[in-house]
Amino acid sequence: MGQAWPFRVGLDPFKRIRTLTPAARCSAAIEVLTDITERRRPAADALKDWGLAHRFAGSGDRAGIASLVYDALRRRASAAWIMGSETPRAVLIGSLRLQQGLAAASVAALFSGERFAPEPLSDDERARLESGTLDDAPPEVAGDAPAFVLPELAAALGDDLIPELKALARRAPLDIRVNALRGSRDDLMPALSAFDAAPTPHAPLGVRIPIGADGRGPALHVEAEFLDGWYEIQDEGSQLAALLADPQAGETIVDLCAGGGGKTLALASQTRNGARLIATDGDPRRLAPIHERLRRSGAEVAVRTPRSGKARADVLEDLDGHVDRVLVDAPCTGSGTWRRNPDAKWRLRPGSLALRIAEQSQVLDRAAKLVRPGGRIIYITCSLLPAENDAAVAGLLSRWRGRFDAVPAETVLAAGPPSLAASVRHTEHGLQMTPLQTGTDGFYVSVITRRD
């Protein structure tokens, strides 16, 4: 901008700490939101570029700006509705009221027009802040979701559509999973006492860490216990999905879409390295983080990386018809993770949904070839859309008519904690976790068995 940005200077015993003023952070957030809107790019990329162009901003400033941006994206539709405008400035102003509960006077203090602060509120902006309401807003506005997916979401959520969408617009908690290969949850809890950690409501190895008013949690990835493999950062819903897979020692288990290995590590922990675990992924780049995570955790897993130009079947063909359990953590739209990735919902298009549905059919058919008679496929998505969930399972059952059956929900739930049965949603072929009902991301789980 050609001028030095304004800082508040604080002192600690060791160094001077400079932080951007709250008003300057609002200006920066508007810059980032403008970049996201004009270039239709992921929020993480826009935030990274802003940080590189403004290296004077410390980690606290960057995190504070990110919180403002993500909160604005969570409430983009409803904020624009009450402000009567879809500009980045209007969306940020509206989100300060809807997401952070700031009164008009508090917002006006941030939008003062002083050096590096956003321009002062107009009379219309102030009036809308004071009297704007969502009482007559259509469902896509009240729920902050793309209109074209509302019929799908309504089919999954029924009368809870709007409450569930509002839950999806809140900030997500910070959950970790204790690595049973290192010890128990009780063993780890004293080391986390400074973070006010508490057990998760359902997952037996889960721990929940409170996040701050700015949406930030502690930097758990630099703690000694993390570096020693005592825990992994993993949403409770993902932990529960792995638990419902019910892996057993002595089995051959393939994680077909392993990615970074979160559920692979959970399966190794659950079986105490007693199963023969094989992890692979159709995109070799997604497997890159798994090797360090395996080393840190002590999990024993064979990673099979597809070679360039080769089909996924080439690295697994020796296992066809012999695998006890195939975990399919399928590629999906990620609608169940909108709390964590709010920009993803606004980048979702009908064409991308169709692409994901096609990919899910392909990976399920590959799993069907791998599993032995009497074996099981555990189909998981982080989606709330029936087209990616029950419809995908129904497609497999239809294509492989007479050779597979969906396992009843009561049988699947027997592998999980008793508390989960009372809060999870039952669907035609599986189970649906949701932020409102289970307090987790929106994970879907279906277990499919191959007939003998």
Q: Globular, elongated, flat, extended or rod-shaped: what is the shape?
A: globular
Give the quaternary arrangement of the chains: single chain
Distance, first to last CA: 70 Å
Helical proportion, percent range: 40-55%
Give the number of helices.
21
Largest sheet descriptor: 9 strands, mixed
Number of strands: 15
Radius of gyration, in Å, reads 23 Å
Strand coverage percent: 5-15%
> Please, what is the average pLDDT?
93
**What structural class do helix, strand and pairing data support?**
alpha/beta
Give start-end ranges of low-pLDDT stretches.
Answer: 9-17
Question: What is the fold's blueprint, element by element?
Answer:
Elements: E1 7-11, E2 16-20, H1 22-39, H2 43-53, H3 59-74, H4 76-83, H5 88-98, H6 104-110, H7 123-131, H8 139-142, H9 150-157, H10 161-168, E3 174-178, H11 185-188, E4 198-199, E5 206-209, H12 224-227, E6 231-233, H13 236-244, E7 252-255, H14 262-270, E8 276-279, H15 290-297, E9 301-303, E10 323-329, H16 342-347, H17 350-370, E11 371-381, H18 390-399, E12 404-406, H19 409-413, H20 418-421, E13 425-426, E14 431-432, H21 435-438, E15 444-450
Parallel strand pairs: 7-8, 7-10, 8-9, 10-11
Antiparallel strand pairs: 1-2, 3-5, 3-6, 4-5, 11-15, 12-15, 13-14, 14-15
